[in-house]
Amino acid sequence: MCGGEGFLFTVSDGKASAIACACTASCPDCHGVGRVYAKDEREYEIMRGCTCGADPRRLSLLTGLRLPPKFLDRTLGLYRAYSPSQQRALLRAKRFVDEFVPGASGQRALVFCGPPGTGKTHLLSAMLRELTAVKAVRGRYEEFFLLLSDIRDGFSRGLSSREWLEPLRQVDVLAIDEIGKGGKNREFEQGILDEIVSVRYNAGRPTLLATNYPPAGATWKFAVEGEVAESLEQRVGARIYSRIHEMCDVVEVVGHDQRKELHDVRAARDGAADGPARGTRPARG
Ligand SMILES: Nc1ncnc2c1ncn2[C@@H]1O[C@H](COP(=O)(O)OP(=O)(O)OP(=O)(O)O)[C@@H](O)[C@H]1O
Ligand SMILES: [Mg+2]
Ligand SMILES: [Zn+2]
Ligand SMILES: [Zn+2]
Questions:
Q1: 9 and 99: one domain?
Q2: Closest atom, ligand 1, to C-alpha of 124
Q3: Cα-atom radius of gyration of the chain, to the nearest Å?
Q4: What's the pLDDT at 279?
């Protein structure tokens, strides 16, 4: 069921929790308990997490990632390089995961920039999942827009900015998806992003970012319907943009919109099943 990872996610109330797979019950080392006796370097007996997937600490770290439910099964292994740019993005994502050392500071982070449906959320999610599953990294996924509303809620309940920033500061790897999205209150949004990026930077901990807005020099554009196209720098402001550049390697993720591709495949399949009576499908633009 688990494909050998030893854990699964269950979703309730839109929140994902990691649980041990039933197969860990037959683990010869821990019999499904998830903890094993080991000796430390001074020959003292200690308890350690088992590698079979039942380790309660690792399960709670996986739950703590707060991955979006739709992306729980997205792994780097399932990411396809449909374009050279996606190939580069995948390699860079893998390299980050391979090279990441929990606790070490000053590791360069990544900002994925690309139009909709090229797999940026897939990459962020898969990186966090793998960092935690393999290296027991403490990570956190946040969608910027939802984070903003959580923060607004926090403020209205009397939380100080120190208090809501603390959990974001503490995690080894923070991923913030959809930066630059928003609009109504740009000053507030930029201020929040600035605080998060600064606190992470000062703590020497990497922040992975994703955005639909192009970095300087990109050959593509992005605009929300009814608005003019803007660059990432325009969206987040010059100060944060320069900070991001200092902290992150810019990784463009350009390719076909996989949501649209999937939709078209489904439409073609359904159309074929219904036969010609239903008329012709509109051709892809
Ligand atoms: N290169 C890819 N390989 C495999 N699956 C992909 C790839 N690109 C996208 N997908 C799948 O297509 C869907 C949309 O991808 P995703 O949400 O990650 O795109 P995105 O770049 O984050 O889009 P947006 O900018 O709109 O947020 C997801 O189900 C994702 O798993
Ligand atoms: Mg996305
Ligand atoms: Zn299993
Ligand atoms: Zn075990």
A1: no
A2: 18
A3: 21
A4: 42
220 and 107 both lie in a single domain: yes
Q: Which residue range is the domain that position 121 belongs to?
A: 65-254
Q: Is ligand 1 within 6 A of the CB of residue 120?
A: yes
| Nearest Cα residue to 209 out of 234, 243, 186, 184 | 243
Ligand 1 in reach of 231 Cβ (< 6 A): no
pLDDT, one tens digit per residue, over 80-107 is: 999 999 999 999 999 999 999 988 887 8
CATH number of the domain that residue 209 is part of: 3.40.50.300
168 alpha carbon – ligand 2 mean position (Å)? 20
For residue 193, which of 132, 255, 134, 240 has the smallest C-alpha distance? 240
Q: How far is the CA of 124 from the centre of ligand 2 (A)?
A: 9
Nearest CA to ligand 1 atom 8: 119
Name the domain count of the chain.
2
CA of 123 to the centre of ligand 2 (A): 9
pTM score of the predicted model? 0.92
Q: Is residue 169 part of a domain?
A: yes
CA distance linking residue 29 with residue 23, whole number of Å? 13
